Model the fold of this input.
Amino acid sequence: MSRLLEEKLERIWKLYRAACPAPEPSAGFMPGLWAKIDARRSPGWLAPLRIWATRVAAVAGAAAALLVASVGMWQPQQSLEVREWGYVDVLAQDAVDQRDGDLWLLVSNGE
Done:
């Protein structure tokens, strides 16, 4: 039985070699293969869109960075006064400014 399977396998290999001859090894094999693949591809309308999309994204990123940098340069300088207020002092001042609830009463009474 194994002899019969080996003969069938040999016959299959002979048919395969006849149908698909081995390519000749050369320097132009892969470029030729890619040329055939590219020739079968349809160019479509998405290829130019992808190219332009990457360019537009790069230009938009550069423009946004330039805008942020220019806005930062033209803002007036603020004083660098160091305040020694704590978190509770800031909350109390905010409550006074907004006249908000019990904190306003405590701060306005001096407690």
In short: The helical segments are 2-19, 29-40, 46-74, 87-98, 101-108. The mean pLDDT is 79. DSSP finds five helices and no strands in the chain. The radius of gyration is 39 Å.
